[in-house]
Amino acid sequence: MTKAGTWLGPFFCLALILAASASALAQDEPLYDADFDIPAADEQHFEFWGQAEFRMYERLLNRDSAVYAQRFYNSRQDELQADMLLQIKPELSVKYETFGFYARPRADVGWSQLPLSAASEPDEPSERYFKDDKHWAGEVMLEEGVAAWRPDPRFTLEAGKKVLKWGKGYAWNPVSFASRPKDVDDPDQTREGYVMGVADAIFSFDGPLQTLAFTPVVVPVWERANTGLASDESVLYGGKLYLLLSDVDVDVMAMAGDHYDTSLGFDFAANITDNFAIHGETAVRLGHEKTVFHDDGTRSVHTYDAWSFLLGARYLTEDETTYLLEYYHNGEGYTASQLETYYDYVHTAYDTYQTTGNAADLNKSKKVSSEYNRSSVGQDYLYFRVSQKEPFDILYLNTTATVIMNLGDRSLSLNPEASYMLTSDIELRPRLILPLGSSDTEFGNKLNAARGELRCVYYF
Amino acid sequence: MHSLKYVLFVAAVCLVLGGGNQASAMDAGEVLLAVDRNLAPVSYESYRKLINIEPDGSKREYVLYTIKKGQDMVASVFLEPSSDKGRGTLRLGDNMWLHIPSVAKPVRITSLQSVTGGIFNNADIMRLDYSAEYTPESLEESGDAYLLRLKAKTNEVAYDRLEMLVAKDRLVPTEIKCLAASGMLIKTLHFKKMTDFGDGFARPAIVETDSPLHKGYLSVMIFAAMKARDFSDEVFTLNYLPRIETLRQ
Question: Cα–Cα 20 to 30 A to B73, which of A6, A259, A280, A337?
């Protein structure tokens, strides 16, 4: 794809906007129609809906970052880079008596001006689909596909690929033992599930304990499914107990199995007042093994019980401004000094390569890049998000500013964004991500010095 | 349930035939209870279309499936448009949760928030019986209508006071003014198009809402297929919230 390809995105969005405007201008009818068709709800009914999304990125590379040094040490790239992604995500649902089926496949086609390679490590989880071609990448996958049997409202049995949504945290969920991590830059994005069997039994009571629900889970791990969830083939067993106790949501969860660190968790959420809610969760992963990189280029493995927790609060003003604050302690993460050691080593190794042409030290650092370059790699974070619904009385507009700070090294990411429903079918979402930090900090070593993006989403 | 309907029917007939003297036999609490039962069965399911109309005439429409049980359990799920499909809300008394399919666990929300944009907020969409949230303060007669003044039982309720105009003949509201604690008018609900939903149940099918805070905007709620239906309590739980749509028959 040439530079000309970068014009396709704006044209695509312009076409959507013109189509929506034409539709709006065509309205010449009574104020409203008092009759409406009830969407079909037959005994045997099939539904199909979904979304198509076009994303355009423009990124300014941080050519002084550790990620850049590791990936492009021998092929210097232009500072300004463009990316594009077309993503189609249909959803279908079938219901027949007590049986149901739901599926959400996903097809991605992406183009990146930056050369891609299978060996390169992604800078963020949301970039993981770029992995095959030099500039193009495509992927078709099933995010979720679940068959369900619901003989009674009190009992449900599900089997298939499913996203298990455990935890109360918005940006992070340390108690979500059998789920892929959220993209902290985009926590609302749908995720790929794991293959599992899940039961759900619900009981209601009068009195302080209003609801009790038990959700046992069986997760098989073998060479074709759920790889990465355990270190070798095994079957994981887990469960969650939910209680609505005196208006407080409480969950207790556990997961265990061979080749898997036994994990225990607890979460809660409650409204303190009508517009002020608090939530929290904590988890311990027993016998967690962490690879630590040393300043001489060697590695060692530390085994310990990793304890993580999250505390959060949400406050809504009368003007519909929502403040969300979360503190996250990542027991599996690295301290600021451990990260600094790694970043300093990479920078020194890059200097060595530039003067001698020897990339041996850079290759040593690459061996731990999957651990050290991943998202939320630090130990202590603050997440602060301010959302304003319909500012300046502009209906269907939402503006948000997010700050994600690594408290260990005081580096941060500043993410202003907006969401506007142009029509009930078309949404525009411009966004900017600005990592800020010095050369020995987490956000100062992200591949992008800045990333602007525009998403056009069409719902069908 | 049937005996209550019979009592209400007799009361309504007495009101029509007997005029003001009979009407004044009902106190404010009785009128409020009658209004609640005439607006909805104790437990029911219904479909609603919400329409937000902007000053330039452009509008957005949403279709919801709603179930309710008893005094304090309500759940709704958006069926249309597809951008909101599957977005579910659950209310248990003062507790409210929002489930967005792509997002993690249902999050706690408040009655003040709006899930659609426009004039409607969660309290309008997830409304409990008026008698569950408000205490009647006074009842005045005004021609063919009662003027019922209500005060919120707790601070958790979206509007501190209501002024409800109730038609004497059918004991259904024709207009409700929603006021803040300061006395400021927040919005006015206009009940229109008396409709028979079957099994002898009739109520206004249209509720138009305007607000001096949003001049030129109009929000409309249209009811369809409202019918009595019993549900188990387990349906009104966080675990079941993502599956509310499967209850549609």
Answer: A280
Average pLDDT on A384-400 reads 91
Residues B193, B175: Cα–Cα separation, whole Å: 13
Min Cα separation A292/chain B (Å): 31
Show residues of chain A in contact with B98, CB under 8 Å. Answer: none
Mean pLDDT of B93-98: 86
B173 min Cα distance to partner chain A (Å): 19
Pair A58, A437: CB distance under 8 Å:
no
Residue A48, CA distances (Å) to A102, A375, A431, B26 in order: 10, 34, 29, 52
Which residues of chain A have a CB within 8 Å of the CB of B95? 244, 247, 271
Helix (H) or strand (E) holding A337: helix A336-356
Q: State how far residue A437 is from chain B, nearest Cα, in angstroms.
A: 30
Identify the residue whose tokens are 């039961």.
Answer: A199
Tokens of A417: 């964004």
Tell me if chain B has a CB within 8 Å of the CB of A176.
yes
> A266: which residues sit within 8 A by CB, 6+ positions away?
A175, A250, A251, A252, A253, A281, A282, A283
Contact A51 B51 (CB under 8 A): no
Identify which of B33, B12, B227, B212 has the alpha carbon closest to the alpha carbon of residue B119.
Answer: B212
Per-residue pLDDT reduced to its tens digit, B3-42: 444 444 444 444 444 444 444 567 899 999 999 999 999 9
Does the complex come out with an ipTM higher than 0.85? Answer: no
Does residue A22 carry a pLDDT above 60? Answer: no
> Which DSSP string do the residues of A357-397 spell out, in sequence order?
---HHHHHHHTTHHHHTSTT-BSEEEEEEEEEESGGG-TTE
Q: Are A418 and A398 in contact (CB under 8 A)?
A: yes
What predicted TM-score, i.e. pTM, was given to this entire model? 0.86
In the chain, the amino acid numbered A51 is Q
